[in-house]
């Protein structure tokens, strides 16, 4: 009996052993035959490391070949997710060393789960001290490495910042759209200006090394290498020298206006080639230094920019709209002449005021300017004369010509955030405010006040139209795309987008009035002795708060135009005393000796 029981137990144990061995054999076969390739891949990846070489973005040059934007070498702290310990204590140590929170590092690691062997940059542009601290703790921070990466460099800091733009961390939506293009969740991407609009051209193709390492993570040999391909470069229409001159002139005038009691919150200046639409200078003040964004902007610096009362991140040339002031009288003149409501010979009496429906509307010179033709009215910016022309035409006729000259719609410049401006009509007011249009609003509109809003770029295009007898070109900022060797990949030609058809005599009358502005009228004092002759119009646009925006828009030379200019000094005072002096300095810089960028 005892032997039988012992035999039964031995048989049971034998079967258990056979079953276990069988399971082990099956498991081994499954691992080798079914999962073998996968385990081999994992083992290979543990043995072979991928070292990403980030491609530098393309450079930007001004029209004369001066380098405006490039890249500089720097070092960054990276984490290879597959090798990282994911120890909360070690993450906290790393976070403290590099100055960001553990939560941010954990989110970066989570976002990088799709590519566990591609390094994730967690801190850019580190200094030598932090490099040393990271290397000292290398053994205690597995998966953490120091890598070389290019950092965007804006050579002249705030020069043309609103045009050039800046970079920033790719957000979730951008990453979702661009993941298929090879973007990584910690990449930097163009956020504004040309950096944004030309992202696909400026961005290069990352390269990298495949390196075999031993059990200690030390490099044994290089297995393969893929060279990074730099992004393509841009040759801009900007003239760096002129940009610098315009910026300095504007900043000096803002300071002068403030010293005379004006708020002078900022302003802008635009210079365009009237034959191509090429932007030679575009200044917006206050400005900012895009280098602040190049390796990740600090919370303090970001707060300082977005909370600044004068909005330094706003490109006032295209992203802000203002009452056009007396510059608009050019359009009133064109409409009245073209529709036959005035002739060159008609003489008006400017008594310093205009009466409509028992209400008295004053001009800027309350004692009156006397007898004036339409050319004189432009030269001396007579409000009563233009009140009368507005009354004769009516608001909808005036609006029709304003739209024809490009007001109330985007210019088509390739920059984000351009404003349309506003061209009011009777129907617009009824729809917007459910109120009728009043005759007094028409005569105010005729001098560029009331509901009208324009951008400084639209004012420059208005003067381009006069200079070209009606032809308006699309504003352009990029002339050529070049490769890494400087060879031209693509060139862009001027694009005429609109032509305003007026009689030749009408254009001649308008031009005579604009020349008279600077030779005997409101701008004569400022432009005395300037060569060549400038044809332009000043404007002092009331803000409704007791201050005025200062405008001056022009083209030069008067007889053979090359450039159109528009300058705005926000709440800077009268147009002839604040904006006009800036224009004079720009004209002198363009036609005279230009200061070098590197001086």
UniProtKB/TrEMBL annotation:
Topological relation to the membrane, as annotated: Single-pass membrane protein
One MF annotation (Gene Ontology) recorded for this entry: transferase activity
GO cellular component, as recorded: plasma membrane
Superkingdom per UniProt: Bacteria
Keywords in alphabetical order: Cell inner membrane, Cell membrane, Cell shape, Cell wall biogenesis/degradation, Hydrolase, Membrane, Peptidoglycan synthesis, Protease, Transferase, Transmembrane, Transmembrane helix
Subcellular location: Cell membrane; Membrane
Transmembrane regions listed in the UniProt entry: 12-30
Main location: membrane
Domain (Penicillin-binding protein dimerisation): residue spans on this chain: 53-222
Entries under Pfam families matching the protein: PBP_dimer, Transpeptidase
Example of a GO biological process term: proteolysis
Domain Penicillin-binding protein transpeptidase, chain residue ranges per copy: 267-588
NCBIfam families attached to this UniProt entry: pbp2_mrdA
Protein family per UniProt: Belongs to the transpeptidase family.
Protein name, entry field: Peptidoglycan glycosyltransferase
Organism (species): Pelosinus propionicus DSM 13327
Lineage: Bacteria, Bacillati, Bacillota, Negativicutes, Selenomonadales
């Amino acid at each position: 009996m005892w032997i039988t029981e012992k035999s039964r137990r031995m048989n049971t144990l034998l079967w258990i052993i056979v079953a276990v061995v069988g399971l082990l054999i099956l498991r081994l076969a499954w691992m080798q035959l079914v999962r073998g390739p996968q385990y081999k891949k994992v083992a290979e990846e543990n043995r072979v490391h991928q070292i990403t070489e980030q491609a530098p973005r393309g450079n930007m040059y001004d029209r004369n070949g001066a380098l405006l934007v490039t890249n500089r070498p720097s070092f960054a702290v990276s984490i290879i997710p597959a090798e990282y310990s994911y120890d909360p204590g070690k993450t906290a140590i790393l976070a403290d060393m590099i100055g960001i929170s553990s939560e941010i590092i954990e989110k970066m690691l989570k976002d990088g789960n799709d590519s566990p062997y591609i390094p994730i940059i967690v801190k850019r542009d580190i200094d030598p001290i932090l490099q040393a601290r990271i290397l000292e703790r290398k053994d205690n921070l597995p998966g953490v490495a120091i890598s070389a990466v290019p950092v965007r460099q804006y050579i002249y800091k705030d020069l043309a910042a609103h045009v050039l733009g800046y970079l920033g961390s790719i957000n979730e939506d951008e990453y979702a759209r661009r993941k298929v293009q090879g973007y990584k969740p910690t990449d930097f991407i163009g956020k504004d200006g040309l950096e944004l609009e030309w992202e696909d051209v400026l961005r290069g193709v990352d390269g990298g090394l495949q390196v075999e390492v031993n059990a200690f993570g030390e490099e044994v040999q290089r297995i393969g290498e893929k060279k990074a391909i730099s992004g393509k470069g841009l040759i801009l229409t900007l003239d760096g020298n002129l940009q610098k001159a315009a910026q300095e002139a504007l900043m000096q005038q803002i300071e002068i206006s403030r010293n005379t009691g004006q708020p002078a919150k900022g302003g802008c200046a635009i210079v365009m080639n009237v034959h191509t639409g090429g932007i030679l200078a575009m200044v917006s003040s206050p400005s900012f230094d895009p280098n602040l964004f190049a390796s990740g902007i600090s919370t303090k610096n970001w707060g300082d920019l977005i909370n600044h009362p004068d909005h330094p991140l706003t490109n006032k040339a295209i992203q802000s709209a203002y009452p056009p002031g007396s510059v608009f009288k050019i359009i009133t003149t064109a409409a009245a002449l073209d529709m036959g409501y005035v002739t060159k010979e008609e003489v008006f009496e400017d008594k310093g005021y205009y009466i409509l429906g028992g209400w008295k509307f004053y001009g800027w010179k309350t004692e009156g300017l006397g007898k004036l033709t339409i050319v004189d009215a432009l030269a001396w910016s007579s409000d009563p004369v233009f009140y009368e022309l507005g009354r004769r035409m009516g608001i909808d006729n005036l609006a029709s010509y304003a739209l024809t000259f490009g007001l109330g719609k985007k210019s088509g410049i390739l920059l984000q955030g351009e404003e349309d401006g506003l061209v009011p009509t009777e129907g617009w007011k009824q729809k917007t405010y459910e109120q009728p249009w009043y005759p007094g609003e028409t005569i105010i509109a005729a001098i560029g006040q009331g509901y009208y809003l324009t951008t400084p770029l639209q004012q420059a295009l208005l003067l381009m139209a006069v200079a070209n007898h009606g032809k308006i070109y699309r504003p352009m900022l990029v002339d050529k795309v070049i490769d890494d060797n400087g060879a031209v990949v693509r060139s862009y030609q001027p694009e005429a987008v609109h032509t305003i058809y007026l009689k030749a005599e009408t254009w001649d009358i308008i031009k005579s009035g604009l020349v008279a502005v600077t030779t005997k009228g409101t701008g004569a004092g400022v432009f005395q002795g300037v060569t060549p002759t400038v044809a332009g119009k000043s404007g002092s646009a009331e803000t409704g708060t007791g201050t005025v925006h200062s405008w001056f828009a022009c083209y030069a030379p008067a007889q053979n135009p090359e450039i159109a200019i528009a300058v705005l000094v926000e709440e800077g005072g009268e147009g002839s005393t604040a904006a006009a002096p800036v224009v004079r300095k720009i004209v002198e810089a363009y036609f005279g000796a230009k200061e070098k960028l590197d001086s």
